[in-house]
Design brief:
By secondary structure, this protein is of the alpha+beta class. It contains 2 helices and 3 strands.
Length: 64
């Protein structure tokens, strides 16, 4: 169950600001983080990959 820290999301192509990611999480439009400590959080890689795949699938549906 690999974890991805917030600062490594750009390696997955997610270049949103911390504030925007927080807003998406609050709106339940982005995977919830796992808190490793009160100030350190990370995301499950599988959930991030699924979120990215959903964006691609959504794009493909619109293009059809």
């Amino acid at each position: 169950m690999p974890l991805i820290p917030l600062n490594e999301l750009p390696a997955k192509g997610i270049t949103y600001s911390r504030n925007y990611i927080d807003r998406l999480i609050k709106e339940e439009r982005f995977p919830k983080p796992v808190f490793l400590s009160p100030r350190r959080r990370a995301f499950l890689e599988s959930e991030i990959d699924a979120w990215i795949k959903a964006r691609v699938d959504q794009r493909d549906e619109v293009a059809s």
